[in-house]
Amino acid sequence: MLSKNILNKAALFELLSLRFDREETKLSQIPNPALLLNAQNAAFTIANAIREKKRIALVGDYDVDGVSSTAIVVDFFAQIPYPLNAIIPNRFRDGYGICANVLERIEADLVITVDNGITACEAAEICKQKGIDLIITDHHTPPDVLPDAFLIVDPKLPQCIYPFKEICGAQVAWLLLALLKKELGLNIDMRSFLDILAIAIIADVMPLVNINRVLVKEGLKELMRSQRPSSVIIRDFLGKSSINSEDIAFMIAPRLNSAGRLEDASIALEFFTATTTEKAFMQFEILGKLNDLRKATEVQCTKEAMQNVHEQDNVIVVFGEDWHEGVVGIVASRLVDRFGKPAIVLSLHNGVAKGSARSVGEVDIYALIKLNEHLLTKFGGHKMAAGLALKEKNIETFREAINASASKIDPQDFIPKDELIGSLATDEIDFELLTLLENFEPYGEANLRPRFLIEDAEVISIKLLGTDKSHSKIEIRQGAHERKTLELLAFRTVFEMPQDRKISCSYTVTKNEFNNRISLQLLVHKIF
């Protein structure tokens, strides 16, 4: 525990300042998109296709990053204006990314992918046979053998000299469009896409440092002023004077994701590209209902997955018959939170297992999976998250093999990055503290909101909140002789009075806005 590390505001400010360079990146300092390998040629090729009135198709992905990438490109082409056939594969009918099934529905001279394609060797061959130029834009880790596409734009290509590699698919698309704008001599404001771009960066859990930090900061400002119907609806829904990255991560991204997880990502795309607030509101309502269904499905799947965990393993591998493919990624995240280890959750159907992997700490889950690719039929992803498929007969062998690979990793790499920062005296928890914390936003991957420790505090009272009484408000006193008490909120937790009337937990300090009133909120992260 960290009880001796008692922080005041000055010490906290110094600790948080160490996370960043003194000079923060500005929008004007974002590296030239032309540094992305093949991006200049891709922009030239797309511009020529437009000039020659060729048929252009776009293939996206069904997660938030893929939908956002698609929406940004659709909006850009609408402003040219130029016809664009935009397709997002259906998770259940098509599977991930550009594939033979999708190409059957496309009549085009040029196909562009966003947030997918780096492993699409079969699709590249089909395009060559049909005389279609294929431009792949992606951000996932390239395999050893690349698709034989016309051009590939991916910052993680070994020869790419773009100075910051940890960008999402929507950023790659946005940077390419900036070059296309220049190539065509268009008067399109690239800042106008930052509201959608920020959502993609946050939802795809990109590290909020370097250019990602400034793009999210500026994107959240754009979200507050944009007249894009989807942004108007998001503002109305959140009802806050300012929107932060956690609002997007916890309130908006899961709704957007639910379309591709449970039904079809076109619902989320139509939300982003709606031309009226009425249409955007209608799509947002559908997304809300799908998200409620997603939560119920996820709870049941998580319950079953928990019962199948081999707790001694370094990498959790669980599978279930007909578990919903759309929620296995979230269930993997739940297992990571619960056990503090990387988790792979597979849905089994007709002898084939498909699933998602999530990692923890510094463990590169993609590298671990790649070491055992001989047992898989396909896989792809990056350091913290991946997708994979294998035959049922290989699951147990794969579980043993990936754990053998993981046994060679430094145990320190498994330690979660969400380390506690220290303890705060009760008198330090005030609006001045809130202002200090806001100076270091946006919080997210690589810049976690500080988590503080409360140790052996006296529990004064407990109230259960919500229509189903599933949340707890816990009033505590940190020191025996203190008069001031604190209120902790533990969402989705029914906390019962301990026998010794004591609590130790980690928590974050956030701002709560309700009916135009602002208050401090202490949110419990974990009860020890």
Provide a descriptive summary of the structure in words.
The chain has 528 residues and is an alpha/beta fold. It folds into three domains: 6-11 and 418-527, Beta Barrel (OB fold (Dihydrolipoamide Acetyltransferase, E2P)), CATH 2.40.50.460; 31-285, Alpha-Beta Complex (inorganic pyrophosphatase (n-terminal core)), CATH 3.90.1640.30; 308-414, Diaminopimelate Epimerase, Chain A, domain 1. The chain is built from 16 helices and 17 strands. The protein has helices at 9-17, 39-51, 64-79, 100-103, 121-130, 169-184, 194-203, 210-225, 229-238, 245-262, 266-272, 277-306, 328-339, 365-371, 395-406, 431-438, and strands at 6-7, 56-59, 85-87, 110-114, 133-137, 151-153, 316-321, 343-349, 352-358, 378-381, 385-391, 423-424, 452-465, 471-477, 486-490, 502-514, 517-527. The protein has a five-stranded parallel β-sheet with strand order 3-2-4-5-6, with helices on both faces. Strand 10 (378-381) and strand 11 form a beta hairpin. Helix 2 (39-51) crosses helix 6, helix 7 packs across helix 8 and helix 7 packs across helix 10 (245-262). The radius of gyration is 24 Å and the shape is globular.
